[in-house]
Amino acid sequence: MADNLDIVFGVHAVTEVIKNRKRRVIQLYVLDNKAGHRGIEDAIKAAKRNNIKIDRMDVKTMDALTKKGNHQGIAARVEPVKIMRLIDAIDVSRGNKKDLWIAVDEMTDPQNLGSIIRSAACLGFSTIILPSRRTVGLTPSVYKVASGATEKVTVVEVANLATALLDLKDEGFWIYGADMGGQSIVKTDYSFPAVLVVGSEGTGIREKTAEHCDQVVSIPQAPGSVDSLNAANAASIIMFDMFAKANLK
């Protein structure tokens, strides 16, 4: 059974997964020397309210459990995030004419993916699409960086992102790809519901994916600035722009 469970670590990530109750927490682990830490004590109280077993452990054991991640003295063993089928997520979305989704195209950096999920939850994006191959997926490091945001968004996994985008277009979604060569977001008047597609850290969105975008957009930069923003920063800026303009309509 344990092999099918997720390890979530870090104060914010663990506290959120306990309080959200979107998935069952099997066990909470706390370092012996962390008693009294406010965030950890809050997590312990929440665990007790929900009848979650609490175990104390030493640093060496927790480092092994989290593969030396930045666990901050707390971790939990939880049921995996529920992965929704695209068709089911579309059904849930029906009627929400301003729904916002984000899709990642072959993203391999857990820091970037975790940051994108966190920004998505903060900026009203309901759903994230993850390809089942050549993408980092939901790892413990992603959960840590996302700081509990994985509990607040719907996760959809697809075998073929290009096909998924075509299905979404058939359902009335507008597809926007992020690329340096695209139209400035300042000049972009988005249509909704909408999906933002963000590419990999090195190469951006693939040509095949870009073909299915209704519009490719970019972030204007100051003359003489660095070559480009990283994927997570760029995604956050564009997500804010889409969120703000959706709420003006």
UniProtKB/TrEMBL annotation:
Name one molecular function that GO assigns to this entry.
RNA methyltransferase activity
Q: Which GO terms describe its cellular component?
A: cytosol
Q: What are the alphabetically sorted keywords of the record? A: Methyltransferase, Transferase
Q: InterPro entries, per this entry?
A: Alpha/beta_knot_MTases, Ribosomal_eL30-like_sf, rRNA_MeTrfase_TrmH, SpoU_MeTrfase, SpoU_subst-bd, tRNA_m1G_MTases_N
Q: Which Gene3D superfamilies match?
A: 3.30.1330.30, 3.40.1280.10
Q: Does the keyword ATP-binding apply?
A: no
Q: Which residues form a coiled coil?
A: none
Q: Does the keyword Methyltransferase apply?
A: yes
Q: Which residues form the RNA 2-O ribose methyltransferase substrate binding domain?
A: 7-84
Q: Which GO terms describe its biological process?
A: methylation; RNA processing
NCBIfam families from the xrefs?
A: rRNA_methyl_3 (TIGR00186)
Q: What is this protein called?
A: rRNA methylase
The species is Elusimicrobium minutum (strain Pei191)
